[in-house]
Amino acid sequence: MKVPVGQKLKDIEVTEPRVEILIEEAQKETLTGYIRVTYEKTGINDLYIFFVKGELTAVYGEEMLTQREIFGREALDEALTVFSKGIASLYELEENEIRQLPEPKIFLEEKEMGFTNLLEAQLKRLNREGQFLASLVADVQGLPIAAVDSQYNTEMIAALSALVRDVSHRAETQLGFKKMDEVSLVDDDKVRLVCRYFTVGDYMYILSCVIPAQQTYRRLTSTALREIEKIMKKRFR
């Protein structure tokens, strides 16, 4: 898709441009225009994030080698999960140039990037990169906070994860086990339910993932946990 060039306002001097931070920058400056981010990675690596008076309005992504394109919510979800070196710049456009972009799918139904969208983007990344069967974040009472669609009952996973947390807590307090940050349940087919615990403020939460047999997961879930903690600290600070 051809994007109007506009007037470059500035380059953003960061080695690994994170889209969440770039969006905050554009909102702070009440930008009418777009951020272009180009990453040193395979796959979707050229992203355009459009704003009208600081409101997140549309997102477009392209793989420069193959010219594969993604639009709207799919492009935003992809953008929020990129961890790579790259370059980023801010451009100014007229509002009518943004409203007249030629691909309708580029526009977001919701103009603001909410707390749930941010969490779901991390969960989608886990499922995509790790080929996980299900992923969710819940509190220790077993109430889901964020989840993505899967063949599994996410409410049941959240409730079971809370029960598993109760057992691990008893092991720590009654048997003298050291603090555990993970408990796994494995079935006969080697499918694994992994429950990883983390704290935000005074409250504990659970990242629960259903993982296929023989699939590694620790590095991916550790990266996701760092990002999820950042998102939740901003919300609950």
The string of secondary-structure elements, in order, is EHEEEEHEHHEEHEEEH
CATH architecture of the largest domain: 2-Layer Sandwich
Portion of residues within helices: 25-40%
Treating each run of at least 4 consecutive H or I residues as one helix, how many helices? 6
Query: Beta-strand level of the residues, as a percent range?
Result: 25-35%
Uncertain residue ranges: none
Instruction: Give me the oligomer status.
Output: single chain
Intertermini distance: 40 Å
E-strand count? 11
- What's the CATH C level of the largest domain? Alpha Beta
Question: Main sheet: which strands, in order across?
Answer: 1-6-2-3-4-5
CATH topology annotation of the largest domain: Beta-Lactamase
Which structural category do the helix and sheet elements fall into?
Answer: alpha+beta
Mean pLDDT: 89
Primary descriptors:
2 domains; 237 residues; 34% helix; alpha+beta; 5-stranded antiparallel β-sheet; Beta-Lactamase; 6 helices
